[in-house]
Amino acid sequence: MFVKNALCAATAISLITTAGSASAETITIATVNNGDMIRMQGLTDDFTAKTGHDVEWVTLEENVLRQRVTTDISTKGGAFDIMTIGMYETPIWGANGWLVALDNLSEDYDAADILPAMAGGLSHDGTLYAAPFYGESSMIMYRTDLMEKAGLEMPKDPTWTFVREAAAAMTDRDNEINGICLRGKAGWGEGGAFITAMSNSFGARWFDMDWNAQFDTEAWANTLKFFKGMMDESGPAGYATNGFNENLSLFQQGKCGMWIDATVAASFVTNPNDSTVADKVGFALAPDNGLGKRSNWLWAWALAIPAGTQKQDAAIQFIEWATSKDYIELVAANEGWANVPPGARISLYENPNYQAVPFAQMTLDSILSADPNNSTVEESPYVGVQFAAIPEFAGIATEVSQEFSAAYAGQQTVEKALSNAQALTNDAMEAAGYR
């Protein structure tokens, strides 16, 4: 079967190369500065060799990327032929007609192999508008040696109470070890995503069924007070400005007892080339509070084509290359199976080589347990786990996250941050015609 597939792939590549060499293009791709995307840039010569097309990369920090691509596509700026976007933007932009539908991908690409959770979140009315480069949920990554030293054992289903107690027990300020590292950085997809997912497990929600903001509730007050209290006790200095990359660096340096974040980080914290604690990492589901909702999210970083590109054929060829089964094999051959892009394809989790990776099953379990259609304890009117899938959310949530980060930094009280969040959210929703 492998030989047959390899021959089919070789035939397809030959056809692409023949077609591509006749009219080679240079495509411009906007992407996020996450490790998997940077790794892809290092392998781009493989794409160029197979197609004749060159690639120019614009690599940006997460918040900056979102701002740049949103501005470019909404104003039809035409700066990019491919954009790295996610589950929030894709259905909205697809509905607006801003993206090229990916409804005619090649048979060899096998779009049916994409995990349903990912395909569903990257579609509008059943049509795929972005292909997942990797998919993720969130989970606990923890130092097994520090947990043992504290005399504790990570439960199968950890609670936030246990996490806070464990964080305090593992904190060693004299040796620069923080019991827990979490995102506090402003930005709807940075600290905003984390605190929203966490709030679900505390019984909070962004809106009631009439689109009234809910930041004046006890559930949100409990969420923010718990987060700030735990991080002040056991988190790193300056946590209010730490996002994914900052916490990854701290964990790899051995300065975090626990880190709750994207499942995709597992390959980086267990890579001995980058992580000083690679052989001392365990994994557990994101914590809950016994209310029936865990605090894990659902996300995919995906590649999409803006409708205005003049290089659509070359862009489709790149997306097929970068999100294919063959690309996974390419990464495995160069970096090992633990470092392939996770969470996007069914076949990956059926592959014995990947099943042997220690975090593979926990990643899949976390992805499958996140339900964007039923993410809150009380009924809510929106789809999404760590976001509300409405066009106004990105702007509102960015402002709300700035209020929260100011509270984390001690620049205002939690009560003031929630009061400001309540007012600005209701004002924005009223202006947008929801109320």
Automatic annotation (TrEMBL):
The keyword DNA-binding does not apply. SUPFAM superfamilies: Periplasmic binding protein-like II (SSF53850). It is found in: Periplasm. Residues 1-24 form the signal peptide. Gene3D superfamilies: Periplasmic binding protein-like II (3.40.190.10). Keywords: Signal. GO terms for cellular component: periplasmic space. It holds the Pfam family SBP_bac_1. Belongs to the bacterial solute-binding protein 1 family. PANTHER family: ARABINOSE-BINDING PROTEIN-RELATED (PTHR43649), DIACETYLCHITOBIOSE BINDING PROTEIN DASA (PTHR43649:SF12). This is Putative ABC transporter-binding protein. It comes from Phaeobacter italicus.
